[in-house]
Amino acid sequence: MKLTKTSKHPRPTPDAPPEGTLGKAINRRAFMQRTGLTLGGGAIATGLAHTMVRRARADQKATAESGETVTKRTICSHCSVGCGALAEVRNGVWTRQQPDFDSPLNSGAHCAKGAALREHGHGERRLKYPMKLVGGQWQRVSWDAAIEDIGDQLLKMRKESGPDCAMWMGSAKFNNEQAYLFRKFAAMWGTNNVDHQARICHSTTVAGVANTWGYGAMTNSYNDMHNCKAMLFIGSNPTEAHPVSLLHILKGKENGAKMIVVDPRFTRTAAHADQFVRIRPGSDTPFIYGMLWHIFENGWEDKEYIRTRVYGMDKIREEAANWPPAVVEDVTGAPEAQVKLAAQTMAENRPGTIVWCMGGTQHTIGNNNTRIYCALQLALGNIGVSGGGANIFRGHDNVQGATDLGVLANTLPCYYGLSEGAWRHWSEVWDLDFEWVKSRFDPESYEEVGGAPVSAMNTFGIPVSRWIDGVLEDKENIAQKDNIRAMFLWGHAPNSQTRQPEMKKAMEIVDLLVVVDPYPTHSAVLPDRKDNMYLLPASTQFETYGSLTASNRSLQWREKVIEPLFESLPDHVILYKFAKKLGFAEQLTKNIEVNEDEPLIEDILREINRGSWTIGYTGQSPERLKLHAQNRHTFNITTLKAEGGPCDGDYYGLPWPCWGTPEMKHPGTPVLYDTSKTVAEGGLTFRARFGVEHEGVNLLAEGSWGKDSGIKDGYPEFTADLLKQLGWWDDLTAEEKKAAEGKNWKTDLSGGIQRVAIKHNCSPFGNAKARCNVWTFPDPIPVHREPLYTTRRDLVEKYPTYEDRKSFWRLPTRYASIQATDYSEKYPLIHTSGRLVEYEGGGEETRSNPWLAELQQNMFAEINPADANDHGIRDGSDIWVEGPEGGRIKVKAMVTRRVARGVVFTPFHFGGWYEGKDLIDKYPQGTEPYVRGEAANTVFTYGYDSVTAMQETKCSLCRIIPA
Amino acid sequence: MKSERRRRSWLALVLGGWIVVTAPIALSVTLTESSAGAEASDQEKAREASQNPRAEYWREVRHGAQGYSAVTGPEANVLIQDGGETWQELRNGPASTIGAWLMAGVVLALGLLQIFKGTWKLDHRTGRTIKRWSAFDRFIHWGLTVSFLLLALTGLGLLFGRYVLMPLVGKEAFGAVAAVSKPVHDYASPFFIAFLLLTVVAWMKYNFFTSYDLEWFKKVGGYLTREHVPAGFNNAGEKVWYWFLSVAGLVVVASGLFLLTPNFEWSRSTMQLSSLFHIASAIGLICFSLVHMYLATIGNEGTLEAMVGGEVDERWAELHHDVWYDEIMASRGTKAEPDAGSARVS
Amino acid sequence: MARMKFLCDAERCIECNGCVTACKNENEVPWGINRRRVVTLGDGEPGERSISVACMHCSDAPCAAVCPVDCFYTTDDGIVLHDKDICIGCGYCFYACPFGAPQFPQQDAFATRGKMDKCTFCAGGPEEDGSQAELEKYGHNRVSEGKLPLCAEMCATKALLAGDGDEVADIFRERSMRRNTRPDTWGWDVAYKDGSHEI
Predict the structure, then answer these.
(1) pLDDT at B63
(2) Average pLDDT, chain A
(3) Which of B41, B80, B258 to mutate to test the interface with C (most CBs of C within 10 A)?
(4) What is the ipTM metric for this complex?
(5) Residues A294, A297, A301, A307: is their CA dihedral positive or negative?
């Protein structure tokens, strides 16, 4: 039977006025857009009968009369998709949340977390006042007293142990301006011991990818996945980690893209895939080599692309020869047919994209994994094309921005590094004397590079993953003056880090422990500490404003929704207060307006614009970002390009690099390294970052250049000298010439060099080949190495890990000495970890949100039915999961075929328990999260990436015992 | 899953025997259920399999397939339950219609009896009484009566009030009544249970059938012919009433207890089954109690006195419960003179 | 006259539970009550599908048929609503409902459940549209504001569709054709026995 229409009413076109269906205060586009289906079915439903329209009109009147509700445009703070959300505020109270249909990133869509944002306006379980631990009890203190006391202690320690005795752990929850100010703050305190979650999230991606083709970020965008013909997800479960990305992924799939999921678990993403390949945890590199073996065997590689744009593919081919199907099956568990089908699918459906996340990055060979993913895409010629790319989904809402703005132990903002040149550049931007900046640091040298001593200012600091060793390690073994004595956990969940038993110890012995966070976090309850610990209430991002960078490099402006709740303060206000106490407030905000201790966000962004030439954070002025926010509806949802309107031609959020000054009006770069567009239109070549030749082989592009390029071949990065050689020097204005003399595209503060390069349709950073051979890394060509804790002892000999290292990120680091011991007898199961859709990160915030907490009330471990039966474990029963380093957790068993036999999976969002004990009594009263549970990382073990010190959380060992 | 099945089979076992007692309702219930189910699923399968390769999957879903849900709550992991439809059909259909007809039939029959036969009066009274019910007996009887009436009235209100009462008094007023009725029904039930159990235990001794009970049945207690039939302390009709009360009472209690305790998160199928048994047994009890109440009040002169004062006139005992009367007299060692004019039949 | 319906596209639903929290958010639904939920069938195995389910606003709604106090009513737009002032919390609607939609704030002995709560299609209840009383008892009345239920509006993948049944069916049919899947209007055959379930 056919569906019979009971009524006919005219269907308004999208351009028609909203016909009075909307409350005035709500101020939205035509009502039919509500179904938000332009993306999906290509159709629009009105869904309203006349009766309702009449009712709506009456309602509109009422709302207009009261006239109190204001709508704020905010951005979800729970992942990197960057979903827009509309907050209705009445009398300062966040009363309702509406979908932001205008946002081209999410069209109003939300996952569980995004749809529960308004709970931030309640914040019932928030940390409400500054608290100090005295005699094992939490006492309320004033902000002034807290800052005075902490500041005095810091100054004293600084005198005794030098500035490196304090570690500033920042956050991907900062907006860009706060992140930048945080890094600047650490610099002015005089240490590189500053880091944030990106270390344990995508640090191996940034290192691996940037060293392959120039930049370490997602090359394309979520939206661009509409154009894919194939999609390979490896170590990525966007359905739970980036749910709204599925809006775009499924759109791509419905457009005909083949979807392949490679994962140790049958995830919710796998459920939507055309092909699912189950691999053993930690065997990503062998799997990709297995695909490459078939690609090379069948000649599916893009030979012309490789010839013109790739360096070192021959070496990849050589290594791939070591991975015939039988070996791949032995090491990964994936049968030949599946691997071949995946390879063939990618080869026959171009352009195709690859997506990876923590499943690929969080390994001792994380950087190898990320580079081999890149190599696969380079072999297929998939980089630099719409529908292709390496779509690396970042984690937190602003982890891309916080990474870009250098809340990292190894670089100043925008990847300038820590060399003297970098410091001089930023000192110039800050309008400060370089010598003064230098004087803030420990002048001693503790490390050598090439036989020459390097001062503390120019050496990597201690990273997030290793701060506990910075506290626990013998002083003599650490490449700095003293141990870490003052620890700042600023927007950081400690339970997301491995080796919790040691962290507990470190938290107990560190002299001063300061937690700055909207919530008390697991830090408040983990250590058995009596004194000298502070909890300082920070505001959430809904209580301040500023810009943030989504995974696709788009910057979005987030408005303030409500005033800071309770006694909380925005992070940049707290920073300023500390700077005042510590004596460098004046330098910190030299060119930034400060209003009652609040540095002006717009001024901070302008300062970022003045200095961030490397990755093009220069064109995104506050004014342009606000204009984009106001005109989101003018951007195309697939291309992200504004069609008409005040932002005509711009890409949404001016995805970096947005070259030159804001006045240059660069539209942003939607797809990195896309030579089919001019640079001025957002095109690019591969970056010339690694010199012009290596061992006599040309590293510059050969026979490939960007559209209409003024140089029809490869070329190095632009400098003042190069401009002169090319005869383009006189394209600079007199003022630009003055600023550009002796500078290059990264350091010329006038932007003239970039402007002229782009005028000639050249990439300011040169035109080189991407490289598969990173000769500066421990494994120049990515190879497989068995995890430190492995069940496959037979593979250890053939694929051994690295030698132990004496000083790595200032600390001795173990590899072979751990792998030498066989733990697999006593701990026969592989332990891996991951995310749940309801929670984020350490979960303190989301577990304190009742709408989310109700959905996941128990920490659990996924166990295959076979393993459960072997151990006498029933679904839902309590079990102990024990790790080889002695940590143990009591959790509920979830018996499921999501995991393979021999693999145990735990989500890492839980905290507030430790080894079988609920620590509820240790929270300050009224701040206990609704749901508490064991931290998975109590069981996770040692192991760090050989380049970035990324922690290993995807393959360890465990055993399970009924509780 | 398993415990659920166990629960169900247990319930079936307890209630199985009773089905015979309330045959008309239960039979129609069972028949409708099985035939409707079988027919639908066969047709469905055939049609869907021809159209849709995933038909089997969706068919399973429609019949209570269980999955995973992050939401916790009673049967949150079941997408569609199909028992509700059957339950609704039976409750709103046979259970209430047959029930209503049954009750109406009983009232009609009693009315006719009263019209054509009138009250069965005592020809005379001796003035002498015999102790029939102790204070305790009367206490449990009236306790049972009051709680039963409360339950019956409120229960009937919840089943039929929407169709009978609501049109008269309006939705709001009926809603207010119902809002009181429901807690009254729920809180009267423990009293009913207690009195019922006491009654069943205390009076069992009077209710074992004897040989002359057969004759009582043959003559339908003599109600149509006004002929006295031999009877002991309880006549055969009363015995039937007792046993019906015991069995149907237990059913009404057992099913009611499920309905009364949602805190144990009984499955919906348990609740649906309980509800049907509850309705059927309750209507059975109501019908029988109507007969009982009629006969004990206007139907027979002198009967109510037994439960009010505990004593009956000797003449009443002699007429209606001659065997008992004889036993009492025998135990006293004297036999009272039959009154003149009284025709002692049989 | 429009006939409001929900439709969950099982090919798109990813069990993100956005619909569940959107509902909590918009209607201040307390802990323990879930007007909407997502059920995953075949969890962890090939063929796994997730489906979001709430009150389907059935034609000839079973809840209404069994309600002893007749507290349900169907709006002109086919939305099944109920009057909490009349509801006595007997639980019958929960027994009758195929979709497990009715929820109760309590589950205590003596059949104490409190007033039934369920999805209103974000259309409130019998109180005046947009009034405080309506908000407190039933949540926001989006329909009277010219909006659709928030769960569908916020659905991460636009799997959950809400609106006039004809239009929803059109969209779904088109989408199914595009991806070559059969338009399985999940649950419609159970909910809409008036014959409007096939597309």
Answers:
(1) 77
(2) 92
(3) B80
(4) 0.96
(5) positive
What are the backbone dihedrals phi and psi of residue A226, each rounded to the nearest 5 degrees, phi first? -60, -25
- Per-residue pLDDT tens for A710-751? 999 999 999 999 999 999 999 999 999 999 999 999 999 999
Distances from the Cα of A476 to the Cα of A487, A510, A811, angstroms: 20, 17, 10
pLDDT reading at A1 higher than 60: no
Which residues contact residue A137 at a Cβ distance below 8 angstroms, ignoring those fewer than 6 apart? Answer: none
List A515's β-bridge partners, or say none. Answer: A489, A535
Q: Which of residues 151-190 of C touch A (CB under 8 A)?
A: 152-158, 161-172, 174-175, 178-179
B72 contacts on A by Cβ (under 8 Å): 854, 857
Instruction: Provide the terminal-to-terminal Cα distance of chain B, rounded to the nearest Å.
Output: 61
SS3 A174: coil
d(CA A642, CA B210): 98
Query: Total structural domains in chain C?
Result: 1
Q: Are C38 and B71 in contact (CB under 8 A)?
A: yes
Residue ranges covered by each domain of chain B: 81-331
Phi-psi region at C57: left, alpha or beta (left = phi > 0; alpha = psi -120 to 50): left
Gap between the Cα atoms of A228 and A681, Å rounded? 21
CA distance A206 to A368: 12
- How far is the alpha carbon of B69 from chain A, nearest alpha carbon, in Å? 9
Determine which helix (DSSP H) or strand (DSSP E) holds A862, and give its type and residue range: strand A860-863
Alpha-carbon gap, residue A928 to A931, rounded angstroms: 8
pLDDT tens, residue by residue, A230-250:
999 999 999 999 999 999 999
Query: Which of B74, B162, B260 minimises the CB distance to C110?
Result: B260
Asked if residue C196 belongs to a domain, the reply is: no
Contact present, A924 and A856 (Cβ < 8 Å): no
Q: Is residue C150 part of a domain?
A: yes
Architecture field, domain B81-331: Up-down Bundle (1.20)
Residue B17 has pLDDT above 90, yes or no: no
CATH number at residue C81: 3.30.70.20
Burial state string for A214-238 with b = 16 or more CB within 10 A and e = fewer than 16: bbbbbbbbbbbbbbbbbbbbbbbbb
Of C43, C66, C113, the CB nearest to B67: C43
